[in-house]
């Protein structure tokens, strides 16, 4: 396991770009997720209409892993349905826990597959899943 | 510089294919062979429940335990061995103090003074006392150098102050508190002073009598001893009037169905089977430190810290917190790399075998006061080397590249 | 009988020129090599402050600690690892329970029920709660066999009872408490049950789920582990609603100058740097016990106790206390020699290398209830042998002569 | 160090005889001494008049060492002056603490010298000194 398996090109770019890190217009689902042991804090903003995630973004502070993971997640869910987002969360968590290893099944996660190896850095798993947990809670609240 | 590494088996191991460069001694120190061996020897040759048996083995276990107490008494310059209470760690020492002294001798309208430098262990217990008793918890704030200025001491410690509890050395900034001034002012208003020596006793000599403090607390594991043993020192007069905290075996004289009488010091505060192996370990650690000599520890650490500060200063995107001077830093350097979160920094240098700490260092109020979310912290002990510093700096220089920044 | 002694280095030593015959395992057990070595290996290879570092070594220390918790969870049949709180010993476990549960969920007019068999550690903390809260501390008394009769359970546990805290095995008489009946009655009136497993877990399997208890406490050092580590088991639902006890590092989420929020279980109750070496030790001890197998431990101890009771019964001037039967004695035999004070007995047999305990065994109310001032106690563990019993009896037979009585 | 150096003839006899274990007539100085860790309890009874210990005895429970030590002490002080008793206490404590080793000096203790070796059994030292401590306290109270 080299560092390059964790700090990949994808992670680096998402962390540095800040593409999804801003506010959106009239969000109707806003939830803050925190990771007290790290001090990471992100706030997700979503505009959900008729079961579809029309727009999404985030703000907050955190390490490269949590920032990149959040940004990648937003790319993945924006424009899709709530149901699809829930499916993605399930697949992502399964991947992190090594319960889902089938490459085909993981394909749906797109760039998020870049976080597959995070379990080799147990101290950082919490950073990687923060956004996904927060989204899960937000969607659960909605329904 | 003398090489002390060879006594520490863990410092011969590798991490991620690189020799371990351990720079988190402020969190916990590594253990030299004489300490590891002393504990194992205790269990191989002398183990029994102390204080409870009439037989030879139990007498020897009791002696091992009480001799360790005597070693620690001498080590910190206390007058009587009754003033040394063995606890689990600094945290337990302060909780004992807060429950037994704080809850009983601090009342409504009284003031407790701590500093913004405090570790959570010397902070939350006092929040609890203040809340339960209707007292006020006041903070001494720091200047730009990370030090407590005289005005804070003069202004915050007042006639209402009943207790001042202060860290001797900050575990984030490495700054040393002006204990003499604090003790003088506190005693002039009739307040008692507790000193958190968790970060000082590994690095320089503590003499509780000379310092004039009323209580002092520290952990074995930060001064080369095993985990699970710590110390609360208290002046006999004060410990005597404090009620027992934990109750149970060994801290009693007579027990009736509805009542009991407490044993004299120090047993009064040591309920249940004590950690004799741990006590033997902390005594062995004190002996080891004495053998090395604090003057050598200070010399080595000062050189290392100076060298590290110099090297780190040459890296333009590194910000160092606290005083710029290497003197009085006790081997602690908190810093950040531009655009890089400390967690990423720690992970990236770890891949090169370098162990540094990242986060809030159990001092959230301090970090908030400094306007920081988290920092990296490299902390040195006498077993570190110039080479360790070189490897640290080399690895730090690779961080920004790994995170996608030019350099 | 299989010979286990060879794993225990201390049992190869001599005392006063005689091979050590260690018969005080109820006070503390001796440690086998695999336990001593596991702890030393932790400090040689894995030591770091757990939960606090992002680097490999700290992750491994955290894993060592949390895996130990998982080992203990399985060992006692708990559902979740969050239900396992590491403490220093049984005494701390009961103090935690008394301060955090007792002081908050027991009020004026409520009743706490314990038994007259209790060790001081499961007795004085409840005196303190009863006194502070205006509750009543009631005792279940025992019959001539040293056992708690059904009527006591039926009559003493009432609608007013909020907590029943009972020793699983008496450290003086070796009698086993009727846990099933106590749990049934207590739960039928809505009371919670805490079980003192200090003397049971070394000798037979504990399954907290099957037993149905709400809390359980035990010490590592009595089950082959080093000193300085113990356990409090609690049902998650109950631990969840209990406020933190010790405050400080690691048990928090956010800390502000005047307030804090607590971490979830189990960290909530584990403030400060924990005893990772101790946790590794208790896990190694649990593994060692599993390797030997409780069925073998029970078999060996039953044979030893039976043999010892037979041999002791042939000595006319020895009185044995408690039930005459060897079944359900857990290797504990309390006795006295006519006209001889237990302290003299212990000293005299010690000269022959035999370590037995004399005194009140931290159970003064029980001894008073039995009309005794002190007793001798020989306690066996699976590493003892028939030969040990022979040497004990032989030495006991010399006692009266040494004291100037004919025979 | 053999057992015979502690459990000597003298100790055995004093322990078994109970010669000084009874009540005396009109005692004017009665003090209880306890050793909580052992459960030993003795009560000294003295009749002191014009600085002289006219009569002395004890009652209570304890091990052979504490019983014998008490009995020996009573033999030693009975009939003597309070000042002499104080001197004996000092010498006895000095002997136990190994501060007085000079045989000549110890002669004044008579049979109490039999307890010289008790320091080889550290767990039993408290038993040996209980009576002497109690007497010390009693005489201090008196004056
Ligand atoms: C039944 C019982 N409970 C509690 C304890 C206290 O254990 P510890 O001294 O390890 O806290 C003991 C042993 O001393 C015991 O035998
Ligand atoms: C200044 C200071 N005080 C207290 C503590 C708490 O020590 P422990 O975790 O050993 O209880 C620490 C270390 O963690 C510290 O650095």
Strand segment tally of chain B: 17
Rg of chain A (CA only): 14 Å
Largest sheet descriptor of chain B: 7 strands, mixed
Q: List the quaternary state of the chains.
A: heterotetramer
CATH architecture assignment name of chain A: Alpha-Beta Complex
Separation of the first and last Cα atoms of chain B: 33 Å
In whole angstroms, the N-to-C terminal distance of chain A is 40 Å
Domain unit count of chain A: 1
Assigned CATH class of chain A: Alpha Beta
The secondary structure category of chain A is: alpha+beta
**Beta-strand percent range of chain B:** 15-25%
Please name the defining characteristics of this protein:
heterotetramer; A: 143 residues; alpha+beta; Sufe protein. Chain: A; 3-stranded antiparallel β-sheet; 5 helices; 19% strand; B: 407 residues; alpha/beta; Aspartate Aminotransferase, domain 1; Aspartate Aminotransferase, domain 2; 2 domains; 7-stranded mixed β-sheet; 4-stranded antiparallel β-sheet; 14 helices; 17 strands; globular; binds pyridoxal-5'-phosphate
